[in-house]
Amino acid sequence: MAAVLRNAMGHVRSTVMCETVLVFCVLVTLVQSMDVIPMTEDSFVFTQANYNASITEGAVGKSYVTPAMKMGIYVTDPTFSVRYKVINGDEDGMFKADERLIGDFCFLRLRLRTGSHLVINRELNDMYKLTIKARGDYGHNRKKFTSYTEVIVNVLDENDLSPIFFERSYEKRIPETTPLHASIVRVEASDADIGVNGEIYYSFAEKTDVFAIHPTNGIVYLTRPLSYSSEDVFELEVLAKDRGPAPWGYHRPSRANLRVEVVKVNFHSPKIQLQELPAVIEHGQLDSVYAILYVSDEDVGINGEISSIKIINGDPGGYFKLIKGDKEWEYNIEVARVLDREMDPNGFNLTIQAADKGSPKRITTEVIHVKLQDTNDQTPQFEQDDYSVSVDECVPASTPLLFVKATDTDYAKNAEIQYAIQSGNQFGWFAVNADTGLLYVKSALDAENKTSVELVVVAEDQANMGSRRVSHVNVNITIVDCNDNEPVFMNPQPVDVEINEGQPVGSEVLQIKAYDLDMGENGYLSYSIANPEGLPFDIDHFTGKIITKEVLDYEYMRRMYKLQVRASDWGTPFRRESEIVVTIRLNDINDNKPHFEKVDCKGYVSRDAPVGTSLVVIPAIDFEVTNIISYAISSGNEDNCFEIISSNGELRTNCPFERKRKNMYSLGVTATDGINTAEPTYVNLTLVNSRNKLLANGYSSITCQDTDVSKDLARLLSQATENNARHDIPHTSDVPFLKNVHSPRFPPSLPSSIIVTEGRPVGDTIISLKAMDGDQGYNGRLVYVIASGNVDDVFTMNTYSGDLVVLSEIDREKREQYTLNISVSDMGSPPKSTYKILEIHVDDVNDNSPVFEKTEYSVVIREDRPINSTILRVVATDADDGMNAQMVYSILTDVTQFSIDASTGEISVKRVLDREEQPEYVLHIQAVDQSPDKPLTSVVPVTITLTDINDNSPKFQLERYHVRAREDLPVGTVVVTIQADDPDDGKGGEVRYALLDGMGDKFEIDRITGTIRIAQELDFEAKQLYNITARAKDRGDHSLSTRCEIIIEVVDVNENLYPPSFADFVFQGRVKENEPVNTIVMQLIAVDNDAKKNPLATSKDYDITYSIRNGSGLGLFTVDSRVQSPLSVVASLNGTLGCHLPGDALCNEQFMDHVCAITSGDMSVVADHSLGLVVYSEEIRLCLNWIVLKLTQRSGVRRWVLPKTPRVLMPPSEVELASLVGLCGGLDSTGRFDMFVYLDIEARLRLLSLTAVKVQHAIFCPLAAHIALSVVVT
């Protein structure tokens, strides 16, 4: 015999689902005809070790628990007796166990005892864990069997409790500026019931437009703007009501009081108004009032009272204080400490803070500028403690020396400075430009007179007379000698000296002395002879001593010399020299002895020669032409026999010789000029007889040797004549370097006008104006100066080079042209000079940026301003010249709505304006000059503000609103808030709302905020959908409006409270095998108490339909889905019945089918019943029994789910039990009930197959908690 297939059928309590069918399962068993099998201890066991069942709280005696599956024991022997008893878990004795044998199964049924005073109360005990004992036997004195199981009885909730607020009253203070839809407070209530019975709806007892309460979370929020002046306190009563069915037809809500106090908002900040008094004078009187402040606040009450006013910034030194004035809200700013404008030249920016007493307090800050009036309390201060400068004494007048610069930290006239030389300028050599402070040479300097000058320069401010302040500075001027003095001879002039001839070489003739007033090397002198050629003299270069360099000889040399003695200093670049003529006369002295013309005379004298006989004349010549020579016999004339004429040198006899024994005489003859004596010459005479033939016709014969002295004298005299004839020498005036012949002259090629670029660096050379002078030395040495035209002391001339140099800043914007008188003079004596007029045109450099007339521009225009219309003109100027001053305007900001005329600066509308798109434009306008090299720019902001016109209709945030609302939501619940935005300004942007059609009397809208509430209770059965047209309209001139569609879908709420019920939990019937199709087997009737006990129910809620849900006869029997009252179910045989066991043994087959009674309401409630059918089979067939719960029918697909923890008895090779996958259904966010875990089943005749599907959703279901199992057929 094939194994008996048994399947555990589930039994669940009524469950609410959207578009699903709730199944109430009743056990159906298959009873198979077989031989009696005795019961054994092993076979006497409960089908499950534990069972789940449920009972409704408040159930009365004899109320049965509803099991999730059939409970009991299979009994294979009809003679076997079974009894059940509760032995544990029922301390109060509330439960009783009954048994009922149907076929081969003894059902365990639990019920409440009758007469018990205890009531099932879920809130006290929501679960009973009962231990059931089963006893079985065959009668007396037979063996008894026992078995145990555990039944967990869950108490199902009844809506027997009302919500309770956590607090009976709530209070909340909110500011009147609380934004719309802001949460104010949350009220909370609790309900000990569970599921829908414990879900709470909140509502207000009375209608209010100002507040709304969320129906489920109890949050109270604002739906109308608040105004303290209109209403400052709201007293509201909040209701809390659960959603469960009322056991007696009436819900008693709980109540709580809500007090909302509107707090006046401190709207206005204090205002500070200033009444300025004259400026504060520095070093003025303490406590003097600078300004009066009037502090006010437009708020009323404490919000309008001023709590404090103080100086919070801008006065770190505490120079000011705030003192309460005489009048209300009047405060004085007074001087607290001595002020010094120089310490704070820009004054003070006092930040005044005023705070009111509001909560939160409002604070206003105002910056007040305090301007200090200057008093002349500061003395000009020179940039240096003293100044030093060196200057060549030879610079011409008007040569600049240096700038003395002083500053004065006072203001205006008190800070204007004039310069003057106070002392030290006794010679009047210097002057100072009173405006610029340039110190310059006023007249010729003389270092020989004074080498240093200490000037005292004063700087005096230009304050009122009597209050002017003066400062002094010493300027030390060192006058540098420039060799402007020629040497001066000290010797008396004319210089005429005599010198004796014959002085030895190096003999001093004369010392020339000179001096030079210059200093240093300029005053060092050296001497020279300018005409040294042929002169026998030399001069010591350092001492000036004239000495002989030859022995002078009067007789043949020049007897008068004129020397050009030159005294030269050591100056640079040229020496200064002076010359003097020194006349040297040669004195003749007897420095020459006579020279005999004849010498070595010898001869014969007759002894007979008479006395006085002339023998020979021995002449002598003296080179001293003026000398007289006298002769004498110096020797050999002892006997005085000879004499010589002293005047002419004639030798005569002076005695007779006849008696003389001497034969020879050697006479020494000398000649003298009186001083010098010639070397003696000797005359050798031999005395002979008169007849001696050596005598020639006389008494003597004497011969002498001629010396040619006369020729020498002739030559000497000739030379002397020649030398003394050359006595002419050049005069000093004929020396070129001593004469200033030429005047300086500028080359014709030098321009008469030049262009100088402004901004040239100080010290930069502009042009070289070098002049020419044909003279030499200092006569050709030139010095330059700007004689006039140098306004503002901008230029200077290099004294020696002739370079025109920048002395101070060149600014074309200050002066465009200069006409300079350039003077040049030589350093000759007397000097010669010339001048040149030079025009300097200052060429512009782009050193000035454009300057707009205003620091910012603003204009207000209508947003409908025509295109191309001019709205504003910006003007910029540039202090530069030419292209550097020409402006081109452009818009830097990336906008397309405006354009600017590049040349005129006119700003025009270029495109259509829209204030709603952009209410304000800040354009950055650039003005750029047209400099080709380095253009400069300036930028100015231009604010263009658009005023509104009502050109925009309100626009809803959504064109269509689609919302779902449960039909049981309280009146006053906000279902949706529509919002339309109107970007227009003022009343053109204020929107008012209205519902035009489609709302019936069920909905209303707040005209100000667009909040739509439930006005009357909704009824899904009456109307499921509302298509409402809403309008938003602005309040502007020529108001505009728009519309939107609001679809409100009413969600059905289960009002089907009672499931259909059968008279019993199990029915039995019989049908013969091979009965024809449509044979009526039996009739079942179910009833629904919604018809009598549920005032909310409609006919659909108790209109019952029937179906076969499951069982072994599924597909073999049918049932009429609907039977008119009295209700009945007809099961018909549908095809041939039979079972085949191996071996074709015949058997009786018992079918157990589930018959379900289902109400036809939208929220169906099912009564499930087990139907036992016994069929007499002629053959045995193997059939599979499936336990399923039908949930819904969608798109032609039958979807199924297994009940919680079923017992599946199938061959392991065919079915495997899968893991738990999740919950099966619940209430989604829209309020719609649905189930989400399915098993698809394909029904076939006599063989069914299962297919597992995944869980699509798993959310909490408040009415049922099914667990889904996946079953896989392998």
Automatic annotation (TrEMBL):
Residues 1-33 form the signal peptide. It comes from the Eukaryota. The keyword Aminoacyl-tRNA synthetase does not apply. Keywords: Calcium, Cell adhesion, Disulfide bond, EGF-like domain, Glycoprotein, Membrane, Repeat, Signal, Transmembrane, Transmembrane helix. Residues 47-165, 166-272, 280-382, 383-489, 491-596, 605-695, 748-852, 853-956, 957-1062, 1063-1134 form the Cadherin domain. GO terms for biological process: animal organ morphogenesis; homophilic cell adhesion via plasma membrane adhesion molecules; system development; tissue morphogenesis. It is a single-pass membrane protein. Its main location: membrane. One of its GO terms (cellular component) is plasma membrane. GO terms for molecular function: calcium ion binding. It is found in: Membrane. Transmembrane segments: none annotated. InterPro entries: Cadherin-like_dom, Cadherin-like_sf, Cadherin_CS. This is Cadherin domain-containing protein. It comes from Paralvinella palmiformis. The lineage of its organism: Eukaryota, Metazoa, Spiralia, Lophotrochozoa, Annelida.
